[in-house]
Amino acid sequence: MEKTLTVEGMSCGHCTKAVEEGLRELKEVTNARADLNSKTVEVEGYELKDEDLKKAVAEAGYEVIDIKTV
């Protein structure tokens, strides 16, 4: 399963790293790649729940404003 998250507040490399690491802490996530230019994060894993993804990003200090299943 793959989802694309649009994340508000990412403005530098540190931001993208914090979001990626926060998402990778979830056991369901196998990979997370943030793109600073598009303000999106591609998340791969299994049984990804939107609420869990939003919570992980919020704990990193950012806000998910949209989630699309790819």
- Considering DSSP H and I runs of 4 or more, what fraction of the residues is helical? 25-40%
Q: Can you list the strand order of the major beta sheet? A: 2-3-1-4
Radius of gyration equals 10 Å
Write down the CATH topology. Answer: Alpha-Beta Plaits
How many structural domains does the protein architecture include?
1
Mean pLDDT: 97
Largest sheet: 4 strands, antiparallel
> Helix-strand pattern, N to C?
EHEEHE
Global outline: globular
Strand runs, count: 4
Give the N-to-C terminal Cα separation.
8 Å
Task: Note poorly predicted spans.
Answer: none
Please tell me the CATH architecture by its name: 2-Layer Sandwich
* Number of helical regions: 2
**Oligomeric assembly:** single chain
**From the helix content, strand content and strand pairing, which structural class follows?**
alpha+beta
Tell me, what is the CATH class? Answer: Alpha Beta
β-sheet strand percentage: 35-45%
Summarize the structure.
By secondary structure, the protein is of the alpha+beta class.
Tags for this entry?
70 residues, alpha+beta, Alpha-Beta Plaits, four-stranded antiparallel β-sheet, 2 helices, 39% strand
